[in-house]
Amino acid sequence: MKKIKVMSVFGTRPEAIKMAPLVQTLAQRPEFESICCLTGQHREMLDSVMQIFRLTAQYDLNIMQKQQTLSSITTRALLGMEQALQEAQPDLVLVHGDTSTTFAGALAAFYQKVPVGHVEAGLRTYDRYSPFPEEMNRTLVSDIAALHFAPTSANVDNLRRESVQGEIFRTGNTVIDAMRTTVRPDYRFATAELNELDFKSRRVIVLTCHRRENYGQPMHDILRAVRDVAERYEDVEIVYPVHLSPAVRACAQEELGGVPHVHLIDPVDVEEMHNLMARCCFVMTDSGGLQEEAPALGKPVLVLRRETERPEAVAAGTVRLAGVAHDDVLREVCTLLDDPAAYHRMAHAVNPYGDGHACERIADAIAWHFGLRAERPADFDPAG
């Protein structure tokens, strides 16, 4: 039997976290030949995920440059992908989510007339500039893809309203699959400062804030609210793994440097972050992925954005939009810290994003598409 050659393309840490278990699943199935192509859009953070999941890339474009722009990322990824695709001759290219790597990878595959499968398809804010450039990247890939792997029913509905071409599958989110192996009760942190935290008697808040649309005044307002929280609550510790972006690091130092109970640390790898979230009180983030990961661990999430392309979590009650204004962020944090009932409602809401079997569903869907499986795989049902 001729194997289906599947090339998985990713270049940032969030993509790698969500694609790693899928690459592993495909490699374990006899009907597939699994190929991994990295763009290297984020270098250091990407490499750590590859090491943790013990993945090897057959192609590494290594496009990252200092002070890279969206245009340079897209151009270098597109040119590098052209050569990789001509050499590998895959039957299917898988891209994930909404990064510049995702868009360039899908476009390069289209130019080579290779079908594209879009993992984590159908998320929308319907504001082309927020998140920027992710919303437009994701939308454009939907017009290219032949297979759409949508995590939730709402994502499926978005794609159907847009009348996209190709097959749509509701699979759940692959990040839940990844967390089945990364979170361990006996885990010891590589970051020494985290091992010194008293997670039992202190309320630890995990913070991430790095999105491009929050650069400037929004990020300053968010971090000033965080500073006020640290000064107001004696039993609270705030852990902020600060993104490597110079703009983010400068803002973090200006607003939070030297503030008691605030721990500014370097970015942590996926195992470190998942186990940190498993032990924390709740999460404040402008990240997309953490909105899915933290609820799987029973942790409320305050989203530091004006809108989210993950409204299912808001509807389910696992996530609240805190916005980016100082007073709004401060109010939402204080509600979770001061109102046990509000905290309990969020912590015990049902996570709508997956059951840990998304990768199996995607692999089955690919096999069905290529005629190696008689029945179309059943869709993910959050109700069980």
From TrEMBL:
Gene Ontology molecular-function annotations: UDP-N-acetylglucosamine 2-epimerase activity
| The EC number(s) this enzyme carries | 5.1.3.14
Task: Please name the Gene3D superfamilies in this protein's record.
Answer: Glycogen Phosphorylase B
Q: Where is the UDP-N-acetylglucosamine 2-epimerase domain?
A: 25-366
Cross-referenced CDD domains? GTB_UDP-GlcNAc_2-Epimerase
InterPro entries (alphabetical): UDP_GlcNAc_Epimerase_2_dom (IPR003331), WecB-like (IPR029767)
Q: What is the protein's given name?
A: UDP-N-acetylglucosamine 2-epimerase (non-hydrolyzing)
What is the source species? Answer: Faecousia intestinalis
Organism lineage string: Bacteria, Bacillati, Bacillota, Clostridia, Eubacteriales
